[in-house]
Amino acid sequence: MKKQILRFSDVTLAYHTVREETLAAQHLTFSVDEGEFVAVIGPSGCGKTTLLSLAAGLLTPSSGRITRNGSCGYMLQKDELFPWRTIEKNILLPLEIKHSNTAENREKARALAVKYGLGDFLSAYPSQLSGGMRQRAALIRTLASEPDILLLDEPFSALDYQTRLNVTADVSDIIRREGKTALLITHDISEAVSLADRVLVLTKRPARVAYEHDLDFGDVKNPLKRRESAQFSKWFELLWKELNG
Q1: Where are the domains of the chain?
Q2: Full-model pTM
């Protein structure tokens, strides 16, 4: 049996104001196994990012239980690289924050950068890199702290379509090759189908899991190759109906 990295057990979250209570999520139950890539889609405003904040421990549920077996790394919609720091110093930032900025950890982070095509850009500044390269640097920065699960908050949404396709393939390849667990929040059905092992479909707010699907692409993990397969349109149409039904 695979190790569960993350589990939501009947999780409900309510926001309280002086006048009212607003339910953001209700009876959320799902899990993410070690090495699995799970995508979450849902209607606009349903609470997808709230789910990710709960997973990261940034929000505390009103009821229910969230179990984390390991550390989290968070990748945002924008790369959020500091413009005054070189790419190398940006990548090493998590080590500084976690007080683990040892020579060994710095060398591991640099080796990741070299392995995934950033070796020649370590002395460059973010403004000197393309959007795709900056997003790759943001992922390496997230991986530098060796998290057990990557929480991906629509990390490709700020990119143009062509760049987005290429960066999606790059990021997928890095995550798969490093054997990482990932939970992706996205509004893009195509992105979810091309990347994930499993897709969760949320209801309108308050969010709960309405549908859950294991995707049957076999050994095909590359997002671009998945888009060319016959199964791709089948899954797209089904998820579209579930979201808009």
Answers
A1: 1-70+180-245
A2: 0.92
